[in-house]
């Protein structure tokens, strides 16, 4: 039987007069890749920020593994099993891969670089970074400077940073948007790897081909409201676009 890892119940968020998210309820299944779809301004980032502890909802609740979530920070979300890879990777180019994996995360959320390392012992940091990189099948030298890495490798390091806390749920905001086709393919493989590890992935991706390749289901938002959650096999590009414009399937 499928179990629910994350349940959203009537989540709403208003910024003044703007209703960015309006009464959104759906359940995310354990170990699925769920694409979070919607045009610009549909409310995807707003939802991600709520789920990752960065913003509070104006109304509504959500539950992680059946527990009511009441996050005050990114760290709270991480402790409950949710880690997020933001579009702004906030990779420190002058630091090594292993240091970037262990940079303090809270400042990263604001798009600023973490000033501090959560592990200071160099050997310990290397051991842990090696472990995470190996688990993900990444062939990246933990002692390389991040500034020397390609965009795809930097994206991989940002994912490794998220995985380091061993989250049940990984949220990714447009992880392939700045990448070449080859580099994007490697990130899609990584997403499949996360699924093999038993994790659940919430993926924001504007590239429909990628979504059809990697997602199990899609939750579609339009103007802050949930249009529907559908199995990817029931959708094609045309019906997905119709849903993103607000029409139910
Ligand atoms: P995109 O794909 O362009 O990132 P999105 O689906 O992530 O879009 P959101 O960024 O969540 O959409 O925005 C939803 C609505 O809320 C938009 O109308 C946006 O202008 C508004 N909004 C988002 N953040 C704020 C804010 N901090 N203050 C005021 N309005 C905001």
Low-confidence stretches: none
Beta-strand content bin: 25-35%
Helical residue percent? 25-40%
Coarse morphology: globular
Q: State the end-to-end CA separation.
A: 25 Å
Structural class call reads alpha/beta
Major β-sheet profile = 6 strands, mixed
| Residue-averaged pLDDT | 91
Write a concise keyword list for the protein shown above.
single chain; 249 residues; alpha/beta; 6-stranded mixed β-sheet; 4-stranded antiparallel β-sheet; 33% helix; globular; binds adenosine-5'-triphosphate; repeat; transport
Task: Report what the structure shows.
The protein is 33% helix and 26% strand. The model has no long low-confidence stretch (mean pLDDT 91). It contains 9 helices and 10 strands. The strands form 2 sheets. A 6-stranded mixed β-sheet has the order 6-7-8-3-9-10, with helices on both faces. With 249 residues, the chain is of the alpha/beta class. It binds adenosine-5'-triphosphate. The site of adenosine-5'-triphosphate has 11 residues, from strand 2 and helix 1. InterPro entries: AAA+_ATPase, ABC_carbohydrate_import_ATPase, ABC_transporter-like_ATP-bd, P-loop_NTPase. GO terms for molecular function: ATP binding; ATP hydrolysis activity.
Q: How do the helices and strands line up, and which of them pair or pack?
A:
Elements: E1 4-15, E2 18-29, E3 33-37, H1 44-51, E4 59-64, E5 67-68, H2 74-80, E6 82-85, H3 97-101, H4 106-109, H5 122-135, H6 151-163, E7 169-173, H7 181-196, E8 200-204, H8 208-214, E9 217-222, E10 225-231, H9 237-244
The protein binds adenosine-5'-triphosphate (ATP).
Protein name: RbsA2
Domain ABC transporter: 6-248
Subcellular location: Cell membrane
């Amino acid at each position: 039987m499928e179990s629910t890892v994350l349940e959203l119940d009537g989540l709403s968020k208003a910024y003044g007069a703007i209703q960015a998210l309006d009464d959104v309820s759906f359940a995310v299944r354990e170990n699925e890749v769920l694409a979070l779809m919607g045009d610009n301004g549909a409310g995807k980032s707003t939802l991600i920020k709520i789920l990752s502890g960065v913003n509070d909802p104006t109304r509504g609740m959500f539950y992680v593994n059946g527990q009511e979530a009441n996050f005050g920070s990114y760290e709270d979300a991480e402790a409950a099993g949710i880690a997020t890879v933001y579009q702004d990777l906030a990779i420190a180019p002058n630091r090594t891969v292993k240091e970037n994996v262990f940079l303090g995360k809270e400042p990263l959320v604001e798009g600023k670089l973490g000033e501090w390392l959560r592990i200071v012992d160099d050997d310990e940091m290397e051991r842990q970074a090696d472990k995470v990189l190996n688990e993900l099948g990444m062939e990246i030298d933990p002692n390389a400077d991040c500034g020397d890495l390609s965009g795809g490798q930097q994206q991989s390091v940002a994912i490794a940073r998220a995985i380091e806390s061993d989250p049940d749920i990984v949220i990714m905001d447009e992880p392939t948007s700045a990448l070449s086709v080859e580099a994007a393919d490697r990130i899609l493989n990584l997403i499949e790897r996360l699924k093999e590890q038993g994790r659940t992935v919430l993926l924001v991706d504007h590239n429909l081909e990628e979504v059809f390749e990697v997602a199990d289901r899609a939750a579609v938002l339009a103007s802050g409201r949930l249009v529907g959650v559908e199995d990817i096999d029931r959708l094609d590009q045309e019906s997905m676009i119709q849903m993103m414009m607000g029409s139910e399937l």
